[in-house]
Amino acid sequence: MSNTATRVAIIEDDPPTSDQLKGWILSARPGLVVDQWFSRDEAEAAIARERYDLVVMDIELGRERHAGVALINAINKQHGTPVLVVSAMPATIYRSIMKALDAWDYLQKTTFEEADFIDTVLEMLRASKDRPAAKTGATTAVDQELSIDPLGQGAVLWRGHRVNLPLTAQRILAALHARRGEVVSYDELFQVVKTGRNRDNVRKHISTIREAFRDIEPEFEGIESVPMRGFRWLATAQK
């Protein structure tokens, strides 16, 4: 097995749920290595042994209602691996708790569909690799190469090429660009989304924007995901 393979751990004590999540992940990225752990003890051993690119986990494991909290703390001490919490506990209560623990995102069971899960996983894997780029010296090269019609009626141009974007995606891009270098929160982005004012919908629009730019420039990494907070347009030179 290659040491460079992207590795994902699923920590979930219910085997059918674990298998479902694994199947969804592999359907989106067949080349991933997915390990399944069903108890706190084996998960802790795996975290100490392996360096994962993403951990998908429940909070309740067996009779331990908050076993996942201890695991998140262990993960943060080990490698700071991105953590996606998938739990039946109410998102309205636990999202803020997971944010305080530095989990990257939270999905409440039975309230999301396969597409939502896959979009979140792929975005987190991409964001994990994007993070070092955000620490490099900033320039204004990206800003100078993006043109957005101030009236929102014309084409978005990237290095002279038209970026094909729906109107809502254009509005989100304009909001990010107007605050380039700063984090634009989900709540702020909700203001430019006419319908579907929720995080999953915003993430889908961001994915659309990224893919549109990558149709022009496959290596485009100009939008940074800021875990549990929002997104940032990176004023960093693209090569």
UniProtKB/TrEMBL annotation:
Biological process (GO), any one = regulation of DNA-templated transcription
| Stretch forming the signal peptide | none
- 4-aspartylphosphate-modified residues are 58
Q: Give UniProt keywords alphabetically.
A: DNA-binding, Phosphoprotein
Show the GO cellular component annotation of the record: cytosol; protein-DNA complex
Name of the protein described by the UniProt record: Response regulator
What is the scientific name of the source organism?
Answer: Scleromatobacter humisilvae
A Pfam family that the UniProt record links to this protein: Response_reg
Note the SMART domains from the entry: REC, Trans_reg_C
Q: Name one GO molecular function term.
A: phosphorelay response regulator activity
